[in-house]
Amino acid sequence: MNKFSIAIHGGAGTILQSLMTPELEKAYKDGLQTALDAGYAVLKNNGSAIDAVLAATIELENDILFNAGKGSVFTNKGLHEMDAAIMSGVDLSAGAVAGVTNVKNPIELAYHVMTNSNHVLLCGSGADDFAKEQNVQLANDDYFFSEFRYKQWQEIRESDGYALDHSVTGAGEKKFGTVGAVACDALGNIAAATSTGGMTNKKYGRVGDSPLIGCGTYANNKTCAVSATGHGELFIKAVAAYDVSCLMEYKGLSLQDAMNIVVNDKLVKINGEGGMIGVDAQANIAMLFNCEGMYRGRRNNEGVNEVAIYK
Ligand code: ASP
């Protein structure tokens, strides 16, 4: 049987073991395992990579611990504006949404953009209209409320600052983030998905790297599928996900070597804190980050099944 595999992340950043309780750590690991299993079940039943990343990302969006879907951070106006993208390496088909407000699973809406529209990226109220038209499940503001995100926002709402959901604040509090998945199915097709609430206290319709094809999300069967997490502005400037693909395509590097250059050299040089996960069409996985930790997990049909947080 051909090898197949899936990897997921739940954000990277200043995740300090010293600030984590055993209960919280268990809750994060359980959440990651649930998502990993949901995606893996699709692959095991001969499902496609695109369906696997969709299934895994929906689980992470539904988990209040992660900054996507239900657990999304607050904007400066006290709203939740979510970004998501999904891409298939088979034919480069892609769908993305930015700044959607009351969509329960933004990654599902991105999937609808990919499959049911002639577009790649829809934003704001237009994307919300498309969600209604597609009968995607909506949720009211209460659904997205969480006490700890609210507190995160209160700490900086009067400032001009905005915060990576998973960086440590002045108060020493830890914060966590964006979700994503990459998969390679038994046919050797690969796919990537990323979903986020963005950055706490963001203003002016700020959009990060997650929904931008080539920046936070990319997939091409010739090279790799990548989902990134980190300080979006820098990942946009670096065209980070596509750069991994380019290094593989034009320089013949392996996924691991290409990602290492982007994450641990190119992004570091521009202070681009974060990490990424990737898979190639031989089901090899890479998961790299240039900060203290990244919520992550991987599973394949050769017995690998692990979730991890720290280096
Ligand atoms: N990359 C995301 C953004 O900038 C944030 C994150 O990864 O948590 O919107």
Concise summary:
This protein is α+β, with helices and mostly antiparallel strands.
Task: Give me some keywords for this one.
311 residues, single chain, eight-stranded mixed β-sheet, alpha+beta, binds aspartic acid, 8 helices, Glutamine Phosphoribosylpyrophosphate, subunit 1, domain 1, four-stranded antiparallel β-sheet
Q: Which helices and strands, and how do they pair?
A:
Blueprint: E1 5-13, H1 22-44, H2 49-61, E2 82-88, E3 94-100, H3 106-116, E4 121-123, H4 124-133, H5 147-156, E5 179-184, E6 190-196, E7 217-219, E8 224-230, H6 232-238, H7 240-251, H8 255-269, E9 274-280, E10 285-289, E11 293-300, E12 305-310
Parallel strand pairs: 3-4
Antiparallel strand pairs: 1-5, 1-11, 2-3, 2-6, 5-6, 7-8, 8-9, 9-10, 11-12
Helix pairs in contact: 1-2, 2-3, 7-8
Bound molecules: aspartic acid (ASP).
Residues 11, 67, 164-166, 177-178, 196, 198-199, 208-210, 216, 229-230, 232 line the site of aspartic acid.
Task: Please provide a written account of the structure.
It is a single chain. The chain is of the alpha+beta class. The chain has a single domain, classed as (Glycosyl)asparaginase (Glutamine Phosphoribosylpyrophosphate, subunit 1, domain 1). Helices cover 32% and strands 24% of the residues. The chain is built from eight helices and twelve strands. It has an eight-stranded mixed beta sheet with strand order 4-3-2-6-5-1-11-12. Strands 7-8-9-10 form a four-stranded antiparallel beta sheet. A hairpin with a 5-residue loop joins strand 5 and strand 6. Helix 7 crosses helix 8. The two termini are 32 Å apart. The structure holds aspartic acid (ASP). The site of aspartic acid (ASP) has 17 residues, from strand 8.
